[in-house]
Amino acid sequence: MALPVHIPAGSRADIGWRVGRVVLIALLVFATPYLVPSFRLSQITGALVLAIAVVGLNLLSGFAGQISLGHAAFFGIGAYTTGVMTVKWETAVPITLVVGMVLCFVVGVLVGLPALRLQGMYLALVTLAVGVLLPSLIRRFDGLTGGSSGLFGMEWEPPGIAYFAGRGGETVWLYYVTVVALVLACVVVWNVMHSRIGRAVVALRDNEAPAIMTGINRAFVRTVVFGLSASIAGLAGGIFAVQAGILTPEAVSLLLTINLLVAMIIGGRASYWGPVFGAFVIYFVPVWTSDLSQGPISGVLFGALVILLVFVMPNGLAGGLTSLVRRVVVVVPQPPRGATEGPSPVPVEPGDPAAGNPPLEARLVR
Amino acid sequence: MELLIARLIDGVNYGVIYGFLALALVCVYRGTHHLNLAQGEMAMFSGFIAYALHAAGLPVILAILGAVAVSFVAGGVVERVLIRPLGAHADYSILLVTIGLFLMLNAAAGVIWGGDPLAFPSLVPDRPDDYIGFFGTRLRYLPLLILGVLLAVMGGLFALFRYTRLGLAMRATASNPESARLLGIRVSGINALGWMLAAAVGALIATLIAPTTTLTTTMMFNFLIYAAAAATLGGFDSPLGAVLAGIVLGVVENLVASYVGFVGSDLKQAVALVILLVVLMVRPTGFFGSKRVERV
User: Fold this and answer.
1) What are B283-295's pLDDT values in tens digits?
2) Among residues 93-112 of chain B, which lie with CB inside 8 Å of chain A?
3) Is residue B89 part of a domain?
4) Radius of gyration over alpha carbons of chain A, in Å?
C-alpha cells in the first residue's frame, strides 16, 4: 500500500483514527503507574507539572505572541500560596490551589496592564523584572516563606481509597491529580482558543491595528489572557509545592522561566500537544545527559541540544510529529455534505427555539 | 556627608558596570532588535580566556587585549553560524539560541576551569591602602580605571558612528534595515559587526571587574539583569542612554538600599526593577529610545 494513506474527513476511518488516539493515550495514562517504578512515576509527575506551566506560558507567548520572561513568578506565587497556607495555616490543599490561581490571575492582570502600552523587548523586560523580583521578595519575607533555607512539609494526603493505600499511594495519587489538572488546563486553553476571545487573540497577534478596527477590545483580551495564563502557571506551582515537598527561592528563579520557555519552543509553540512534549524533554534530557556523563559536561550537552533543535526542528516536536504522521495518514477535508445540491439539506423547522427560530406569531392589527 | 559621598561613589562604581554591559546589549539590539541573553555569559567566558592567557605567561595587559581580540572574532562567528541562518524575523528561535548559548557557555566554563572562583590580577594597584583621598572618602584606582575605559569606549563608538562611513552605515541599518539594504549596505555584515563589538566590550568588562568579583561562572548573572534594565531605561537603541541609565540605576539603588531600612540588601535588586517598571509605565520607550511609528 502506498503511503500516505488518504482518508476522507468524517469517514469511519477518520473517526476511528480520532477515537483510537484518545483511547491509546488514556490507556497509556492508566497503565503508567503499573509499568514504572515509584521513583520514575514521581519523575513523570514532575514533568507533567512542568507541562501544566508550559500550557499556561504557551497561551500567552505561543498563541498571543507576547514573550514572558517572568512566568516562574506566577509558578512561584502558586507554589508559595499552597506552601504557606498548608504548612502555616493547615488549609486543605484544594482550597489553596484555588486561592493560588485567583491570586495569580489578579497579579497576571496587574502585570498585563502596563503590558498594554509596551511591545516586544520592553514587555519582555517588564516580565523579567517581575520574575526576578519574586525570589528576592521571598527572601525578604522569610518569616512567612522560610526564606533561603526553604519551606518544608507540604503534602497531600490521598483520599481513603484502597487504590491509593500503601507506600507508593501518595505518588500515584499525585500522578492522577496532575494528569487531571493538565487535562483541565488543556481543555481550558483549547476552549478559549476556539472561542471569540481566541480568535481575537490570534487577530491581535497577527495584525493589531486592523484587529482593533474590527472592534476587538484589546485591553480586555490582552489582560484576560495574561491573567488566565498566569493562573494556569499558578496551578502548576501549587501542585509542585505538594509534589516536591520543599520550596526554595532558587526553584522559582529565572532558570525556571528559561526552562519553561525552552520547553514551549522545543515542544512547538502555539500547538496543543507541544507543551507536553517540551516539558518531558526539558525534564528528562538533563536526567539522561547526567547519566551519560558526569558533572557539568551534561550542561554543555543540554545547551548544545537546545541550539541543535532550533535548527533541526524549527516548528518544535509537535510540528515535527505532525509532518511525520502526515507521511503515513492524510485526512482529506471533504466539502460539507450537500454543498453541491443547492439549498441546505437540513430543513429548518419553524417554531423550533433550539434552532433559533421563535414560534411564528400572526396577529391581526386593526 | 562623607558617608553620602561614599555611597554615591559606590553607586556610580556599580552603575558604570551596569551601563558598560548595557552598552554591549545595545550593540546587538541596534542590529537585529534582539536581546542577547547570553551576553553576560559570553563576557564571563572571555574573562576566563584572559585568565588562561595570563596563566600561559602573558602580562596582564596583553592577556586582556588578547581576550578582547578573541571575543571580537568569536562574536562574529556566533552571529554568522548561529544567528544569521535563522533569518531576521525568527524572534523565538534567536531567543532560544541565546538561551542555549547561555547554558552551554556557563557549563563549559565550569568544565574547563572548574567550579572554584579564580583570582585575576588588577591592571592598577588595588591593595587596601591604594586610594586617592576625595572629600574625606576614598577613590580607588580600579573603579576609576573602569570609568576611564568606559569613557574611552564611548568616545571610540561615538567617533565610529559619527565620523566614518562604516558608522554611517551602522546608523542607517539601525534606523531602517530595508532602506539601508536598498542603498547597498551589507546589513548582515553590519549586524555581525554589532555582535563583534558587543563581545569585545563584554570581554573588557569581565576582565576589568574580575579582580574584585573573582572569576566564577555566575559572575555576570546579576549584572546582566541590571544591564537589561539599564538598556531598557535608556531606550535600547541609544548607547549614551544605556550608559547614563546604568549609572542612574546604580546610584538610586545604592542610596535607597542604604537609607530605607525596609529595603536593606535583600531588596536592593528589587529597587532597580521597580524603577524600571515605573519608568516604562510613564515612558514606554525609555528615556532616550526613539519612538517607532507604524504605518497601518
Assistant:
1) 766 666 665 555 4
2) 93, 95-97, 99-108, 110-111
3) yes
4) 24
